[in-house]
Amino acid sequence: MFFIWKSFMVYQFSFRYFSQKFTNPIITNHGVWETRECIIIRLIDAKNNVSWGEISPISWFGSETIKQALDFCYQLPKAITQEIILAIPDNLPACQFAFESALVMEKATNFNLTYSGLLSAGKLALNQWGNLWEQGYKTFKWKIGVDEINQELEIFDLLISSLPTSAKLRLDANGGLTYQEAELWLKKCDQFSSKIEFIEQPLPVDKFREMQELSNSYFTTIALDESIANLHQLELCFQQGWRGIFVIKPGIFGSPFRLKEFCKKHQIDVVFSSVFETEIGRQAALQLAAELSGNNRAVGFGINHFFQPQESNWLESLWKTF
Ligand SMILES: O=C(O)CCC(=O)C1=CC=C[C@@H](O)[C@@H]1C(=O)O
Ligand SMILES: [Mg+2]
Q: Is the CB of 118 inside a 6 Å radius of any atom of ligand 1?
């Protein structure tokens, strides 16, 4: 219904490239991520209402690259319609998210959500969780599949024994484990089932059947992330019978409208996850999470100061640059 009455509207379109260096590089099995590149888009309607969107791709998760997103923005006319927005192809999911979110941007900022704090890979995590706990975080996510497994299992023993009883720990391997290593982790986690919420993407995307096998062999829940990075992959895994946890990154997933349709049609156990976006993409993603997070799982949008704080007028200054 929403998209019918907006179809005749024309928007003045402009965009700016924006990048931020991580205060500490994000180290995962995918590698070392030092700088977050994105594109901020601005739409101004006939009544001079301004709305914003953010294109924050993660190409190693299967989304478009920042160059492909820039090329797409450059070829758009200065005046665009909702028709053009709804015709953004599925191979540009981060663009679909940004433009559609801009059409439905709301002002709400405080969402009734609980947040998960991201811990760095390796032993750094042992010194990070306490400060987050004091800030009120009860759920933490720790990156594994980065260092040698025995080193990580030792750090895990220290971490899990230091976390308070009511804390929840998620492990995220980013597809970096072998089948045998995943079994070692699942056996370990099964010993701490009250604290372990899930293991995220233990195996690579092409090992779907093996992850199904593991999810039927161990108590610890498995969550898919890279395997369901966009709507097409989500539908495929759902049709192939996945009923574990689905980690959805709205920023790279594609059309929010079609995500809402899927989540209303199928009651899936979903965890919403950040793509390390600015406040613009974060607002749009949390709006979706607040609407679709039926199961009260913490959202992976902890404010862990991934970037140096921006000036309050960063957006205004950005629009003065070319
Ligand atoms: O989901 C969270 O808790 C925080 C976001 C997060 O972990 C990630 C965001 C983007 C890419 C990855 O490095 C990582 C992930 O794999 O989930
Ligand atoms: Mg993940």
A: yes
